[in-house]
Design goal:
Strand order of the largest sheet: 3-6-5-4
Helix content: 25-40%
Number of strands: 11
Radius of gyration: 25 Å
Strand content: 5-15%
Number of helices: 13
Order of helices and strands: EEHHHHHEHHEEEHHHEEHEEEHH
Shape: elongated
């Protein structure tokens, strides 16, 4: 299904082996469909049929005609099939490839990849509001909150030395320590909001993301010693939560507290503990020159967050912005908007590089290709630029290359990290 998503920007999974793809505005769609059919058989090893039409009904009819013609040569005269395809192709907008058009196409491809990832991970995506229904935004909320499985150091605050918690929570905490040190997957302990409850496109603004993470950059993990129930991704909900700041190298445990109500996730004592133990971390978010005002209550911070209003953190006469960068007025994480802008900027730069006659793309193509068609695609090896006519893929991220946090490597990490590519490949294999 992820390969089929490369036909257009939006994909609707119709059944286990069938989907619809929006191809409006894509030129030469008939040839593109034939190449996509061949690519799926080449890469996945299964035959498929592709029907083109102005409506889903016409597309299914065309698909039936195409498959029947292949099964029963001569049953459908080639002229009749050509007329059907020509009529359908005549309704597709034709456009010459240029840098601007290519950038738009790459953005559509990115949305299509995000849509496939949303399906692969079963993310809640209701698209209740048109202006918040970007698959890329929904994917980025999950991607930023997802904790990449890799070994990390466990760091403890002074609060962790004075814990008085039940034995079950203690065993759950020790189990987490081991998994973190060994690089295990601790995402099942985040809670169901990661996939099932939060939805950036939802009608309820209070459930579009995790406000604690979006505002203060703090994760919370459920402390349970029990194994993950068979056939499920998440652990069972626990009575005690561990509040942490997580980066690529470490997990800093701030505190362990009983599972609070919604207002408890605006507990300012968490940030005071962070400041007391890791002042240099919070110093980078200090709002210099801003006078500390009257402190807000935890309940007031919770209420303002639910309205999409960000508030400074006041500690010892100093003002700090939330390390999570806060919320937009739509109550979605600000960092998602920043990341989406960066992705669009990367794709514009990528389009410029592709269109450069002296760059690495055009000179590598098979001679004689007058109008190359480039798309952004996910291959089993990672994110790539694919050229339709030559059937060539240019990998954008290469293992062993020095990391570029401001270019292609960041694009790959945001849009298609290795663990997400693996999930897409496995999902395709299951469907086949």
């Amino acid at each position: 299904m992820s390969l089929a998503a490369g036909l257009g920007p939006y994909q609707e999974i119709y059944s286990i082996d069938e989907c619809f793809v929006d191809v409006a505005g894509i030129r030469d769609i008939t040839k593109r469909a034939f190449r996509m059919r061949d690519r799926i058989e080449q890469w996945i090893g299964i035959p498929c049929g592709i029907g083109l039409g102005e409506t889903k009904t016409l597309a299914k009819l065309a698909n039936h005609v195409a498959k029947s013609a292949n099964r029963k040569p001569g049953s459908y005269p080639c002229r009749r099939l050509s007329i059907i395809l020509s009529i359908m192709e005549a309704n597709v907008e034709m456009a010459k490839l240029d840098e601007r058009e290519l950038a738009i196409r790459l953005r559509r491809d990115a949305e299509g990849i995000a849509s496939s990832l949303i399906t692969a991970y079963g993310l809640k995506f209701t698209k209740a509001l048109d202006h918040l229904s970007s698959p890329l935004m929904r994917w980025l909320d999950f991607r930023f909150r997802y904790i990449d499985p890799q070994p990390r150091q466990v760091v403890l605050s002074d609060r962790m030395a004075r814990l008085a918690i039940p034995e079950e929570a203690t065993r759950g905490l020790l189990k987490l320590f081991v998994q973190i040190n060994e690089g295990g997957d601790i995402n099942p302990y985040q809670g169901r909001g990661l996939t099932f409850r939060n939805d950036t496109s939802g009608a309820d603004g209070s459930t579009r993301t995790d406000f604690l993470w979006a505002d203060w950059g703090v994760h919370h993990l459920h402390l349970t010693p029990d194994p993950i129930p068979e056939g499920q991704f998440f652990s069972r909900p626990a009575d005690y939560l561990a509040f942490c700041i997580i980066d690529a190298a470490s997990v800093a445990f701030i505190d362990v507290l009983p599972h609070p109500d919604a207002r408890g996730f605006a507990n300012q004592e968490l940030m005071r503990t962070v400041y007391r133990n890791w002042p240099e971390y919070l110093k980078q978010y200090e709002l210099r020159g801003m006078l500390a005002g009257d402190p807000l209550t935890d309940e007031e911070i919770h209420t303002l967050r639910s309205k999409g209003v960000n508030t400074p953190i006041f500690i010892e006469g100093k003002a700090f912005m939330g390390p999570g960068f806060g919320l937009t007025s739509a109550r979605t994480p600000m960092r998602l908007t920043r990341a989406e802008d960066r992705i669009h900027s990367f794709l514009r730069a990528l389009a410029k590089g592709i269109c450069d006659p002296a760059g690495q793309f055009l000179p590598a193509l098979t001679p004689g290709i007058e109008e190359p068609e480039f798309t952004l695609a996910v291959t089993p090896q990672g994110l790539a630029i694919f050229e339709e006519h030559s059937n060539m893929a240019f990998l954008l991220c290469k293992k062993g290359r020095p990391s570029d946090e401001h270019g292609l490597d960041l694009l790959c990490d945001l849009l298609a990290p290795e663990w997400a590519v693996t999930a897409l490949v496995e999902a395709d294999l299951k469907r086949s």
